[in-house]
Amino acid sequence: MIKLIAAICMVIDHMGYIFFPDVIYWRLVGRLSMPFFFFFLARGYRYSHEKGTERKYLRYLVLFAVLSQMPYYLMAREGTNIGFTWTFSLLLLIILSRTDLNRPRAALKCLVLLCIAYLIDVDYGVYGVLMPFALCPQYKYHKMFLYTIILWALYILMNGVGGLIQVLACLCVPLLAVIEPIDGKIRLPRRFFYVFYPTHILILLAINHIM
Question: Model's pTM, two decimal places?
Answer without folding.
Answer: 0.91
